[in-house]
Structures are given as C-alpha cells and as structure tokens.
From TrEMBL:
Record localization: Cytoplasm
Organism encoding this protein: Sporolactobacillus kofuensis
CP-type G domain boundaries: 14-178
NCBIfam families in alphabetical order: GTPase_YlqF (TIGR03596)
Database matches in CDD domains: YlqF
Protein name stated in the entry: Ribosome biogenesis GTPase A
Keywords: Cytoplasm, GTP-binding, Nucleotide-binding
Length: 289
C-alpha cells in the first residue's frame, strides 16, 4: 500500500520510532535489493541512536545476483552488517536470529560480567513501505500477523514474537517514509512500486527503466522485445533520440499504435513498467555502488 507522507506524519512516525527503539537491542533495517540506496530512509542512523544495526537486503530473487554481492561488500566496507534474504521463500531467514545474536554479544557480555542473565535479543524491523517488512515478520513468526495500515498513527497493541531461542521480534514494523528530494531516487522507488507511479510521469519511469536496462542488461532487453540490434549509449545528447527510437521499436513490436500510425507512448510505458515489476525482464538491479 502506498500513501502520501506529510510533515506531520513524518514527525509522528519519527517520534513513535524513537520511543519504540528504547526497548530494542537490535534495529533491523530492511531494504529492497534492487534499489539498496533509494530504499533506505536517511534518518535510520539517527533513529537507531547507537543501537546495533543489521541491514537486510530483501527480495534478492528480484535483483541481479552480482550487483547484490557488490552491494553487500560495499556496505560491509562501511562497517554495516548485511544479511541477504528472500522473505517470500524464506531463503536466508533461518540464519537471521544468529546474525542478530552476534550483534548483541558485547551487551550480553557486559550484563554477564555484572552477574545478570541477559534477556533475549529484542529486535524491530523497520523500513520504507513495500520493502517486505510484513512478509518477513510473517516468515519469522511462522504465521500471518495482522497487518496494520502503512500509516503512522495507526497503532495496535504491540506484541513480541519469539523467534528461535535467542530472539524476540516486535510484531509491528517501524514504517518510515521514502526519500523524496532526489529525482533519481524517485524513479527507482516508482519503478519498483514503492511509491505511486502517479506521483511521477509514467513515461519518465519507463524511460528510466529502458535506459538502465540498455546500459546493464542488454541481452535481457533484446530477448524480451525480440530486438535484433540495440543502440549504444554514448552519454551525449544523441542518447535521447536513440532511446525514443527504441521506444518506437518496442511499441511497434507490441502493437501499441494509435490512429495515424503514431506510437502510443503511454501503453509502451505501461508494458515496460509491468514487465520490470513482474520480472519478465529478469532479475534486475537499478543502482550500483
Ligand atoms: P511492507 O510494506 O514493507 O510490509 O511490504 P510487504 O511485506 O507488504 O511486501 C510488499 C510486496 O513485496 C508484497 O507483494 C510481497 O509479496 C513482496 N515481497 C516481499 N518480500 C519479497 C521477496 O523477498 N521476494 C519477492 N519476490 N517478493 C517479496
């Protein structure tokens, strides 16, 4: 579900999150592997306020495997612990409590040194809408947890879910807003469905997808649309024309014509966006480290 965020919402979501995190040992930040930067909320670091953090790259099945490894390496070089997951099938989920447990070693040792028995690792999953928070919580819980709306302020009594013998997870995710200011980020979010495409120009999103695919996944593009040759982008003003020609070609192949033989660009755009989201173009990543 996508919603509009207003300053009041954001302030409230932030306040709620800061409050929640007081009871938490480990903050689990979830991102979409196809857009690992665009799907991060810039405030997580501030909100997590020094608590150990685990970055989960979710939807690995939808992303380019090589790019995902590059991203993992990139984040790890920055000192971030990364875990790769496919919440839909459960891949990577069973080892998650262990990854969390490692992050609480220092805290547990401190408590043990003072003669206390440490409680289970309390974790919270947070992230922007559509990254798969609910799917992952359901996976970890082994059952369907009632979903609250993707709206700050809509609350239900929170409960802890026991996951394995070492971890307890809050059953409601922390929902943060996506970044808005960078147009490139907006395109990534719209292309993956994390924000409403109506917020952006439909054709612009398709154009962005086509350009990215042409750059990094030429074979997938040629195969999907049965294209004999593909233009080479040179980073000059000519690229725009080449992309429009490619749009035309895909339009013709798909019968997206209006009266007078003109290409129906809205329909071509719709096809490209739909194909990307349903993985007809293959598992494709949209940003690189
Ligand atoms: P939330 O808004 O962050 O709670 O996201 P949801 O859990 O509602 O997931 C958003 C969409 O992504 C749903 O259609 C899920 O089925 C899908 N999804 C979640 N995780 C994965 C994953 O790892 N792989 C794939 N292919 N789809 C996923």
């Amino acid at each position: 579900m996508t919603i509009q965020w207003y300053p009041g919402h954001m302030a409230k979501a932030k306040r709620q999150m800061v409050e929640k995190i007081k009871q938490i040992d480990v903050v689990i930040e979830l991102v979409d592997s196809r857009i690992p930067l665009a799907s991060r909320n810039p405030l997580v670091e501030e909100i997590a306020s020094g608590k150990p953090r685990l970055l989960i790259m979710n939807k690995i099945d939808m992303a380019d495997r090589q790019a995902t490894q590059q991203w993992k390496h990139f984040f790890e070089t920055e000192g971030v612990t990364v875990h790769l997951v496919n919440s839909q099938t459960g891949q990577g989920v069973s080892t998650l409590p262990d990854a969390v447990h490692k992050l609480t070693a220092a805290r547990r040792k401190k408590l043990e040194d003072r003669g206390f028995r440490p409680h289970a690792d309390r974790a919270l999953i947070l992230g922007i809408p559509n990254v798969g928070k609910s799917t992952l919580i359901n996976r970890l819980a082994g059952k369907k947890i009632a979903k609250i709306g993707d709206r700050p302020g809509v609350t239900k009594a929170q409960q802890w879910i026991k996951v394995g013998s070492t971890m307890e997870l809050l059953d409601t995710p922390g929902i943060l807003w996506p970044k808005f200011d960078d147009p490139q980020v907006g395109l990534c979010l719209a292309a993956t469905g994390a924000i409403k495409e109506e917020l952006l120009d439909f054709q612009e999103i398709a154009f962005f997808l086509l350009k990215t695919t042409l750059h990094h996944y030429r074979q997938s593009l040629a195969d999907r649309y049965n294209l004999d040759s593909l233009p080479e982008l040179t980073g000059t003003g000519e690229d725009q024309d080449k992309l429009v020609q490619l749009f035309d070609e895909i339009g013709k192949k798909r019968g997206c014509l209006m009266s007078g033989g003109y290409i129906d660009y809205d329909r071509v755009s719709e096809i490209i966006i739909r194909d990307y989201r349903s993985q007809k173009l293959g598992p494709l990543t949209l940003e690189w480290p």
